[in-house]
Specification:
- Helix 6 runs antiparallel to helix 7 (184-200), helix 6 (160-174) runs parallel beside helix 12 and helix 15 (373-381) packs across helix 16.
- It is built from 19 helices and 15 strands.
- A hairpin with a 3-residue loop joins strand 1 (29-32) and strand 2 (36-40).
- The strands form four sheets. It has a six-stranded antiparallel beta sheet. Strands 12-13-11-14-15 form a five-stranded parallel beta sheet, with helices on both faces.
- The chain is α/β, with parallel strands linked by helices.
- The protein folds into three domains: 2-113; 120-335, Aminoglycoside 3'-phosphotransferase, Chain: A, domain 2, CATH 3.90.1200; 343-507, Rossmann fold (3-Layer(aba) Sandwich), CATH 3.40.50.
- It has helices at residues 9-14, 62-80, 120-125, 131-146, 152-155, 160-174, 184-200, 202-210, 243-246, 250-263, 267-281, 290-307, 316-335, 355-366, 373-381, 396-414, 429-441, 455-464, 477-483, and strands at residues 29-32, 36-40, 44-49, 84-92, 96-98, 104-112, 214-216, 226-229, 232-235, 247-249, 343-348, 369-372, 419-423, 446-452, 494-498.
- Keywords: ATP-binding, Kinase, Nucleotide-binding, Transferase.
- It comes from Chroogloeocystis siderophila 5.2 s.c.1.
- It holds the Pfam family AAA_33.
Amino acid sequence: MASHTLLPALIQQMMQPEFYPHPVKEPIELIQTHVSYVLLTGDYAYKLKKPVNFGFLNYSTLELRQHFCQEELRLNQRGAGEIYLEVLPITQEEQYHLGGVGKPVEYVLKMRQFPQEALFLSMFERGELDEARMEELGRVVAQYHAQTATNDYIRKFGEVEQVRQSIDENYDQTVKYIGGPQTRSQFEETKKYTDNFFAQRQQLFSDRIANDWIRECHGDLHLRNICLWHDKILLFDCIEFNEPFRFVDVMFDIAYAVMELEMLQRPNLGNAYLNTYIEQTGDWEGLQVLPLYLSRQSYVRAKVNSFLLDDPGVPETVKQEAAKTAAAYYKLAWEYTKPRQGKLILMSGLSGSGKSTVARQLARNTKAVHIRSDAVRKHLAGIPLLERGGDEVYTTEMTQKTYARLLDLGLMLATQGYTVILDAKYDRISLRHEAIASAQAQQLPLQIIHCTAPIEVLRDRLSSRTGDIADATIDLLETQQAAFEPFTTEEHLVKEVNTTQEIESQLMLE
């Protein structure tokens, strides 16, 4: 209790049950960060901003604190409206009063309190975060981004000068850790990569702006800011205090959790999240900028841990752990910048043969980009993924467009170091040979995986298929069988996979 006497009088009073107009769970718990106080009362949490100014964050006046409380409420309504309730004034006569009628002396954000066990990070630590949940998160974040604002002002934050500002600042702030948790070669090579990226990929940044991928995003979308509460995924605690941290490329948001899961040695979970998100949005081009943001997010984690080494109030044992953590993040940031050998994998087989199941499993194991022709076709047609396509979506012309787009995306991403799985029937020799010739021209390795199963199994699978984006039905099977052109002697890259048997051992790819 002695430490409470060092707290401001308002916080001391807020730790008393009688301050609140509702029952509380005693003792009231106080959580402090360098910028806020959070009081946990049982059903509700109350958050106050400290009167601080760190440059990138300024809560130094009552007006600013009121403004940013309102902004925090407004912005978090988008992803967690069930948690963020209202901003209340605090007034003072002799005592402080919550929501009194006098002149406000402070403002507080009232939220519903949820258990820490609901956090995605806590779920991960308990072994409860699986691929299905991460796929669901991909759909939730895609919907979230679709509803976020963009305009000419927001789009300006996607310009190279703006994007590189915080990245260059990270390097300036971490030079002194070279020889400590950071090595000189890692520092120089990571910086050289980002310098070259900004110099050589100007058109990519212009395209991201032109296609409205710079939006009012979350800005801090890691596993501690995502929870599962009342069976609903909520995205909370977004950045309200700094526009450049929030007006970013959607890939900036996605990169946080993908990077985190890589560091936690579960890249398959990040892959489930990433592939689902991109399939929902159709933003496969965004993968071109993803390595930059993966490196950036990892570098920021390294920097924050490095800062602890300079704090005289931090115990030596904590500093040693922070140095180890920082070193691991610096190394990961550097690894994201390394060139990789890209590869194309073509799936082939009739509807119901298990192509997507095999492709999904392969993607999770190899961190591959999984592009389904059904998704490409529906994005081209401008219809929702789960909406059934009419005859106009399945014309010969539309099929040609779909396969052309599929191959274009595959080549674009594979030449930039991704393993890309093109998931389609690939039932025609001409389609397969075009992909083989294009891969050879770009000196890309290519593999064909042909999925098979007995015809009665295909019928059973198609008749029981629900909630999937594929539209194929049983009555198409005979036509598909008749149209399938056998593999030629030139197609020596074919691996047969019988999907009625265990898949993993059949997927041992060169």
